[in-house]
Amino acid sequence: MKINKDLVDAVMMLSFITLVLVGTTDFSNIMTKDVIMGCLGFITIVMVVLRSIQLKQAAHEKPEEYDYE
């Protein structure tokens, strides 16, 4: 399975930034805030796991060799 590094990085950063913004915002219903923060935290953790899997896959790949003749 090929994991797109740029997509994983973008989603991870976006979910983390949104998590911080939601965490610092006042909500009238605390349950809504907790659910949103839980979902965003889960997405962030999944992206970190996917990024670590992608790094392990990249370490096992053989670098391409170019023939300049």
What features would you describe in this structure?
Keywords: Membrane, Transmembrane, Transmembrane helix. The chain crosses the membrane at residues 7-23, 35-53. The chain is mostly helical and 69 residues long. The chain has helices at residues 5-23, 30-60. The protein is elongated. It starts with a helix and ends in a 9-residue tail after the last helix.
**Strand portion:** under 5%
Counting helices, strands and paired strands, the structural category is mainly alpha
The total count of helices amounts to 2
List the secondary-structure elements in sequence, H or E.
Answer: HH
Distance between the termini: 33 Å
- How would you describe the shape? elongated
The radius of gyration is: 18 Å
Number of strands: 0
Largest sheet: none
Helicity, as a percent range: over 70%
Residue ranges: pLDDT <50 for 5 or more in a row? Answer: none
Keywords: Membrane, Transmembrane, Transmembrane helix
Transmembrane segments: 7-23, 35-53
